[in-house]
Amino acid sequence: MKDALDISICDAVEARRDDMVALCADLIRIPTLNPPGLNYREVCSYLAERLAKSGFKVEMIRAEGAPADSAKHPRWNIVARYAGAEAGECVHFNGHHDVVEVGHGWSVDPFGGEVKDGRVYGRGACDMKGGLAASVIAAEAFIAACPDFKGSIEISATADEESGGFGGVAYLAQQGYFDHVDHVIIPEPLHKDRICLGHRGVWWAELETKGRIAHGSMPFLGDCAVRHMGAVLEEMERTLFPLLATKHTEMPVIPDGAKQSTLNINSIHGGEAEQDPDYTGLPAPCVPDRCRIVLDRRFLIEEDIGDVKAEVTTLMERVKAERPSFEYEIRDLFEVQPSMTDRDAPVVQTVAHAIEKVLEKAPEYVVSPGTYDQKHIDRIGKLKNCIAYGPGVLDLAHQPDEWVGIDDMADSAKVMALTLRELLGP
Ligand SMILES: [Zn+2]
Question: pLDDT tens, 146-202?
């Protein structure tokens, strides 16, 4: 049940509904495509100006020396801070400002920020400029309704989440920006009635089979790396995929298909490099001496990353025992440990309570199939009291005609504002 102050906080959010829609649309109109990382400075300056007007102290931070940071594409971030009337805890909202490529199949301008039928459309609408806008409105509404609050509110807008977050949250965490923070909410599009506790683990690796080049008319004089890779893939189909399907997790991962270990083969390249599309000649007859695949293995909190890697090495050794002529190499590209915040953590309990007040239902607790910036807050920032909570339908992320619902944004902004009241309020 909402009390009088809860109602006035929710009214303050409601009074800012048009402002929230305009803010979301403005953010969409700044095309922060990543890669390569366009307009990061513009989006940060825009937010800096707005938050400064609302009384926040704003810092613009370039992740100098981070991966992908360059003079041409600098990795800009902002951290905005509003200190309350007296000392207390710090609640930090973190949203990434980068968006992925547009792709085909749009019926609206992907960077138009079009508003129709109660939705805001555009690339990044749900992932996650809608969530970022909702968190800004939540903070502004709460400050207006409870000017005498204790503690502090921080809002960060960070770079590169879509490419690993190293020029964004990881950099800020390394620089100590989370050292004094008590609670983190990341408004990723998990939906307004769901609390996302964390994510599965990731291991990306490149696997290469090596043969010997020869003339294609005399393949018996060479050793075909593509055929070796064919045998590797066959062995994966026969043994590895069935094994992964038997590994189930206690983590409440959504959707259901991700409640088990999964493996995607991202790409395969073998033999001669592909020529430019304008090349009109024929390929040369060669036996391929190299074939590479990129593996994307998602693992569970119950699994050890050492075992995950050993599964692949053991498989390769099995194939090699049958085909002794080939060599192989496995190169690690990227790894992330699974992360899961405890259901009893203060931020989880508080957001759950606020969801009950605003939506009059109990929240659903979920875990994301893929990773997001929580990994850096957990591992580098050493802060476990972190969740993802925000408006939007996860399935729409990275799709054509991406949108975020205006009612969903307003409801989740109310949940965030009531969360602030419970953690910092009078
Ligand atoms: Zn996102």
Answer: 999 999 999 999 999 999 999 999 999 999 999 999 999 999 999 999 999 999 999
Instruction: Identify the CATH class of 4-199+338-424.
Output: alpha beta
One-letter amino acid for residue 160 of the chain? D
Residues 349-394: tens digit of each pLDDT: 999 999 999 999 999 999 999 999 999 999 999 999 999 999 998 8
Location of structure tokens 């498989």: 315
Under a CB-based contact definition with an 8 Å cutoff, are residues 373 and 168 in contact?
Answer: yes
Q: Which band of pLDDT confidence, cut at 50, 70 and 90, is reported for residue 422?
A: very high
Q: For residue 340, what is the enclosing H or E element?
A: strand 339-340
Q: How far is CA 411 from CA 127, 193, 407, in A?
A: 17, 9, 6
Report the alpha-carbon distance of residue 364 to residue 1 in Å, rounded.
19
**Ligand 1 centroid from CA 161, angstroms:** 7
11 alpha carbon – ligand 1 mean position (Å): 28
Q: Looking at domain 201-336, which CATH architecture does it have?
A: 2-Layer Sandwich (3.30)
How many A from CA of 281 to the centre of ligand 1?
A: 43
**Tokens, residue 37:** 């990382």
Distance from residue 73's CA to the centre of ligand 1 (Å)? 20
Count of CB atoms situated within 10 Å of the CB of 312: 19
At 43 the three-state DSSP class reads helix
Ligand 1 center–CA 368 separation, angstroms = 11
User: How far apart are the CA of 263 and the centre of ligand 1, in A?
Assistant: 21
| 396 close to 225: Cβ distance less than 8 angstroms | no
341 Cα–ligand 1 center, Å: 18
% of the chain residues with pLDDT over 90 = 96
Q: How far is the CA of 290 from the centre of ligand 1 (A)?
A: 35
pLDDT tens sequence across 109-136: 999 999 999 999 999 999 999 999 999 9
Q: Where in the chain is the domain with CATH 3.40.630.10?
A: 4-199+338-424
CA 229–ligand 1 middle distance (angstroms): 34
Residues of the chain with CATH 3.30.70.360: 201-336
